[in-house]
């Protein structure tokens, strides 16, 4: 499986405000690029923190891109994947609206009644890990379901978890012309942070998009 992490951050490295409110950091050209990346992927993943903060749809916006997918024999939208160890996804979340297949990655500690509620809402529930989703095993299971390219949109906890497990192949970050500030505002990679053996990146692209810059890296030492 090829894993590409894509996110937009402010010039000071924040994914959103300290209130965790969704905010447009990307400019129109970047949103269009993100839509194409979704259309090119088999699945789009977020953490439940993002579902709770943003209630994203994670679908492809451009009808021509959806049509191109169906013409090549794919579903109109990529599958949606939510890492949600304890099942905090609300049953009325947009990721459960039936517009695409949805996988809910939960831990073995997930309450059975919540799991059943998610299955009744149409989600495929994949349980791995004792208390927290075991991302390595969960992604291997998704690969077994035909997910060859996984796009990850965030947030910072999930992105850190994927780097921690050595699961990221490529990172693309749009740096937008805003300062958000806030010591508690989410950043590109939160979690516990690395203190040694930092993931190393190879810069593969620098491109001006509107008033921001798109930076792309490949990741050294991808282990899975
Ligand atoms: N600017 C951008 O491109 C984006 C911004 N965001 C912003 O990020 C914020 C949400 O980010 P976070 O609070 O960091 O939440 P998150 O979206 O990273 O979700 C974290 C949750 O994922 C679950 N999870 C399960 N297994 C995990 C594992 N092994 N490792 C890590 N997480 C695991 C846990 O329940 C954890 O609480 C929101 O404010 C949202 O607006 C989110 C996506 C993109
Ligand atoms: N690429 C990008 N740029 C921004 O400025 C953003 N705020 C985000 N946020 C991500 O997009 C999700 C919303 O998706 P839908 O439009 O609802 O499908 C949001 O949840 C973040 O993952 N991304």
Describe this structure in words.
With 224 residues, the protein is an alpha/beta fold. It has 6 helices and 9 strands; from the N terminus they run βαβααββαβαβαβββ. The chain has a 9-stranded mixed β-sheet with strand order 5-4-3-2-6-1-7-9-8, sandwiched between helices. The N and C termini lie close together (8 Å). The structure holds 1,4-dihydronicotinamide adenine dinucleotide and the ligand Nc1nc(O)c(N)c(N[C@@H]2O[C@H](COP(=O)(O)O)[C@@H](O)[C@H]2O)n1.
Enumerate how many helices there are, as a single number: 6
User: Major β-sheet, in short?
Assistant: 9 strands, mixed
Count of distinct strands:
9
Q: Please mark out the parts with pLDDT under 50 across 5 or more consecutive residues, or reply none.
A: none
Q: Which structural class fits the helix and strand makeup?
A: alpha/beta
Q: How widely separated are the two ends?
A: 8 Å
Q: Can you give the helix content as a percent range?
A: 25-40%
- Strand coverage percent: 25-35%
| pLDDT averaged over residues | 96
> What's the order of the H and E elements?
EHEHHEEHEHEHEEE
Radius of gyration: 17 Å
What small molecules does this complex bind? 1,4-dihydronicotinamide adenine dinucleotide, ligand LIKH6CAM
Shape: globular
Question: Strands across the major sheet, in which order?
Answer: 5-4-3-2-6-1-7-9-8
Q: Assembly state here?
A: single chain
Region (Disordered): 54-79
Protein name: 2,5-diamino-6-(ribosylamino)-4(3H)-pyrimidinone 5'-phosphate reductase
Subunit structure: Homodimer.
GO biological process, one term: riboflavin biosynthetic process
